[in-house]
Design goal:
single chain, 496 residues, alpha/beta, Udp-n-acetylmuramoylalanyl-d-glutamate--2,6- Diaminopimelate Ligase, Chain: A, domain 1, UDP-N-acetylmuramoyl-L-alanine:D-glutamate ligase, Protein-Tyrosine Phosphatase, Chain A, eleven-stranded mixed sheet, six-stranded mixed sheet, 26 strands, 30% helix, globular
């Protein structure tokens, strides 16, 4: 139990009814989870407005309602009604107070941007843990608390869930948390209730524009920028064309990084490496303030991997970590499903990646073309019950940038895989790219290995970290990594 007045300490509000001296048994925002003595936050969502459930919540025992508009209640109901300007914003502060402000006992790192968030969070975690810190993680793939791995439902969870995770991290002995911060989360105030120690911006491209997301690119940009009014130190990619707009009105101290001169931290002399099919990059990191240069290597391919590594270095240099620890962590870091190399043969490279739209696939394939290699082979499909335009676009991108495309199935959902393939073919036929169709994804992987040539780079795109295939509403276990490994074993291929 906690006193209501203590939960409200950091909020502006009006008590419209009842007493503020009540004891609260729980903070609840889902009307189906109301319990006797709880505080119920009425959230106005896309599909359901919690204000319409206010009377029902009181009947089930809620003793405090937090609202942003009028609610209908029984005349004699013994309930306290707290009016705020925005209940989502209020819930973030109520949740932080309910869990005794756990973020105050953690060093908090929030990373926003269109691309690179997931990889960078894992790189930061790797570097900091290599130096002896205990780091929690919140992201698109999972939440990590000590040895516990929790499947993620959202890139950034609701504020109550986020504060609960922070609390559990403190209990597990974590001293730091690194997390992905989506524009949606910033727009919906999920990360309010505390101040980030470090806020990071990676890049910005048109994405997440549409119903229930952002009305326009300008709104998307504005929401990304909210992070820099909620952190102590802002670290931004100076090479991105939007960095000054994103940081406009910032209240934090700003630092920059990039691959071009003028940044506080600059990557120089990039050298793409290929060691028996293992792709990577060697480069120098120049710190302008110290006028000091350090050589590092990463075992992930491409220019965007350099940006991700540079972002991580820009963050971690605030933790007084030795150059040796940074180099070791970057060399050994792996991120599940993000340009992840799977050992098959020293003769060629096999990579799986989450690229599931045209923008991501183009970035991936363009990056891989920078390496000296034989053919660039792309295996991909598209999800059912999703935009047909995406299929046309991905087909065109793969046909234009790959030497050979193997079109297969992804998550067909409630569509026929053959119909999805036809849409992909519409795009690829606009190019001169060679292709074949192998609808069964397992067979498509086997086909790629059967026809692999020395020096090939084979990319299995679209699913990345996902370990299922959704067909007719049922999710069947299917992990691209396992498909590759099983196909290699069946063919007697081993990478010693």
């Amino acid at each position: 139990m906690k006193p209501l007045c203590a939960l409200l300490e950091q909020l502006e509000y009006v008590c419209e009814r009842g007493s503020q001296q009540r004891q609260v048994s729980a903070v609840v925002y889902d009307s189906r989870r109301v319990t006797p003595g709880c505080l119920f936050v009425c959230i106005e969502g896309a599909n359901f407005d919690g204000h319409t459930a206010a009377a029902e919540a009181v009947c089930h025992g809620a003793e405090v309602l937090v609202v942003q508009k009028e609610v209908s209640l029984p005349a004699q109901a013994d309930v306290t009604v707290i009016r705020v300007a925005d209940t989502r914003y209020a819930m973030a502060f109520l949740s932080a107070a309910w869990f005794d402000h756990p973020a105050d006992r953690l060093t908090t790192i929030g990373i926003t941007g269109t691309k690179g968030k997931t990889t960078t969070t894992y790189l930061v975690k790797s570097i900091l843990e290599n130096a002896g810190r205990k780091v929690g993680l919140v992201g698109t793939i999972e939440v990590i608390i000590g040895e516990e791995h929790i499947h993620a439902q959202n890139t950034t969870p609701e504020s109550y869930v986020l504060q609960e995770y922070f609390s559990r991290m403190v209990q597990a002995g974590c001293d730091t948390v690194v997390m992905e911060v989506s524009s949606q989360a910033l727009m919906l105030h999920r990360t309010q209730g505390f101040l980030f120690d470090f806020g990071i911006f990676t890049n910005l491209e048109p994405d997440h524009i549409g119903p229930h997301e952002h009305d326009s690119f300008e709104d998307y940009l504005r929401c990304k920028g909210l992070l820099f009014r909620q952190c102590r130190v802002g670290i931004v990619n100076r090479d991105d064309a939007h960095w000054q707009q994103v940081t406009k009105g910032h209240t934090c101290r700003l630092e920059t990084y990039g691959l071009t001169p003028g940044a506080d931290l600059e990557a120089r002399r990039l050298e793409f490496t290929n060691d028996q099919g293992r792709l990577g990059v060697r480069f120098a990191v120049y710190a302008a303030a110290e006028k000091k240069e350090t050589e590092v290597c990463i075992s992930m391919p491409g220019r965007f991997s350099v940006y991700n590594a540079l972002t991580a270095i820009a963050i971690c240099r605030h933790f007084q970590i030795s150059e040796k620890d940074v180099r070791s962590a970057l060399l050994n870091a792996r991120v599940r499903g993000r340009i992840e190399m799977v050992k098959v043969s020293p003769a060629y490279t096999v990579i799986l990646d989450y690229a599931h739209n045209a923008m991501a696939l183009e970035s991936l394939l363009t990056t891989l073309r920078e390496y000296e290699h034989g053919r660039l082979v792309c295996i991909f499909g598209c999800g059912g019950n999703r935009s047909r335009e995406r299929r046309f676009e991905m087909g065109e991108v793969s046909g234009r940038l790959s030497d050979f495309t193997i079109i297969t199935s992804d998550n067909p959902r409630f569509e026929k895989p053959e119909a999805i393939v036809e849409d992909i073919l519409t795009g690829i036929k606009k190019t001169d790219g060679a292709y074949t169709v192998v609808i069964d994804r397992r067979e498509a992987v086997g086909y790629a290995l059967d026809h692999a040539r020395p020096g090939d780079i084979i990319v299995l795109a679209g699913k990345g970290h996902e370990d299922y295939q959704e067909i007719e509403g049922v999710k069947y276990h299917m992990d691209d990594r396992e498909l590759i490994e099983e196909a290699a074993r069946e063919r007697g291929i081993s990478f010693s």
